[in-house]
């Protein structure tokens, strides 16, 4: 069956040269964007109930831009002036650069990993006498606490923000040829919003092995998967599939 409409379960890209826009134009398909999940901040009152006193920490471990935003939001809500001596351990360059929204970069002690959390551990180990706070989501990958425990450092994890299912009720009677998912949370949202969802002719595109697993656990069919050696990005995987099924169909 020909692909004419695609729903991507993420916010619309803010950059003009997004490959999704190129795909839409080149393949003459309609692509809509709608976050199936969103992030909500945990109030300072609830963070205090987690026995978190920001005065007790000398270093912050930041694994995402959300973590950056919500750490500084909570600090403001708690009227905590973040000291200039605070050390920041950022999982990637993207997270470190995002810190500039809140601090004067060159005047702070910022340590940057390459991309994955384990790649940050040599830096944490080097400063193992610090008192580390990990402001994070309610859905933390087990690898993170396991890695920190193995290092034997003084650290505490606290839930500063939560991943929440978005209300998609307005999509109840809207049909798309392809649904695109990037996380198991997106699949969870689909079934919380539409418990009786039947795949039928809808094609499902997924990114990553954990998402594939979540789809299959729900008894659904994976039609398009990324990344693969041939199609390392979702847009490349979509384009390859569309070219195959739309070929010769006007």
UniProtKB/TrEMBL annotation:
GO molecular function, one term: uroporphyrinogen-III synthase activity
InterPro entries: 4pyrrol_syn_uPrphyn_synt_sf (IPR036108), 4pyrrol_synth_uPrphyn_synth (IPR003754), UROS/Hem4 (IPR039793)
GO cellular component terms given for this protein: cytosol
GO biological process annotation, one example: uroporphyrinogen III biosynthetic process
Tetrapyrrole biosynthesis uroporphyrinogen III synthase domain sequence ranges: 29-235
Alphabetized CDD domains for the sequence: HemD
Pfam families: HEM4
Protein name listed in UniProt: Uroporphyrinogen-III synthase
Source organism: Allotamlana fucoidanivorans
